[in-house]
Amino acid sequence: MLDVPGLASIERACFGREEADDLLAAELSRGWARVRVAELPGDEVAAFLDGWVVADEFEVHFVATRPERQRRGLAAMLLDFALDEVFAEGARSSMLEVRRDNAAAQGLYRSRGFEVVAERRRYYDDGEDALVMRCSLEGSLLAARRAVYGDR
């Protein structure tokens, strides 16, 4: 069983959502939600990813890493794992929204083949815009890696 308070503490630290406990408890109760975690030895959960497969597309909802554990590749590892997993199950693309000012996250997503395809004005509660990013899993860097290294 996943630790809702532990995930919620990461969610609050990264996104400032006070309702994180309720939001994540509801998400974990959905049978279709994909929640993947990264744990480090001696640590609680250090990072998590949440998304849904809808038809043949993987919608990434959250990718979050404890602030003191950022810049260690945990989010990249979780994203790679999730994209490989959903591709093997039939997803052929992935999409997500990211804050316009979150250059680090945009860099991660671009490094995995995501491209900006749209913009959502005033998408977030604080009025900030979101960029919609999409990636074809068949033509992505992950697909190229699978061709070279095979399935892991």
What does this structure look like?
By secondary structure, the protein is of the alpha+beta class. It has one domain (4-149): Aminopeptidase (3-Layer(aba) Sandwich), CATH 3.40.630. The chain has helices at residues 4-15, 20-29, 74-88, 103-111, 141-149; strands spanning 33-39, 45-54, 57-65, 93-99, 115-120, 130-136. It has a six-stranded mixed sheet with strand order 1-2-3-4-6-5, sandwiched between helices. Helix 1 (4-15) crosses helix 2. The longest helix is centred in the middle third of the chain and has 15 residues, at 74-88.
Total strands: 6
The top level CATH class name? Alpha Beta
User: Mean pLDDT score, rounded?
Assistant: 83
* Shape descriptor: globular
Number of helices: 5
Strand order of the largest sheet: 1-2-3-4-6-5
Q: SSE order in H/E notation?
A: HHEEEHEHEEH
| Helix vs. strand class | alpha+beta
Low-confidence stretches: none
Rg, rounded, reads 15 Å
- Cα separation of the termini: 25 Å
Largest sheet: 6 strands, mixed
Beta-strand percentage range: 25-35%
CATH superfamily: Gcn5-related N-acetyltransferase (GNAT)
Count of the separate structural domains: 1
Report helical residue fraction. Answer: 25-40%
At the third CATH level, what is the topology name? Answer: Aminopeptidase
- The CATH architecture can be named as 3-Layer(aba) Sandwich
What is the subunit organization of this protein?
single chain
Summary keywords:
152 residues; alpha+beta; Aminopeptidase; six-stranded mixed sheet; 5 helices; globular
